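User: structure tokens for DUF2922 family protein, please.
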Amino acid sequence: MKKLELKFENEDGKIVTYTLDKPVEPVDPAAVSAAMDEIIAQNAFTSGGGNLVAKKSARVVERYVEEVEIG
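Assistant: Done. Predicted tokens:
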């Protein structure tokens, strides 16, 4: 399953990551950037280190898990 990770910097200078399941593909970088700007402007989320103050990055992550039989 693919996920969209949005990474922000908070007031303490720490990275805060929010993950969204099943992003619409192909991902539109301009739309993601605009959404991140709006999250910061609206102070939509809080973190233990204060308000979100800057965008750091965004990425699509796909996790593949294969079970290993151990007997």
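User: Anything notable?

Assistant: The chain has a mean pLDDT of 95.
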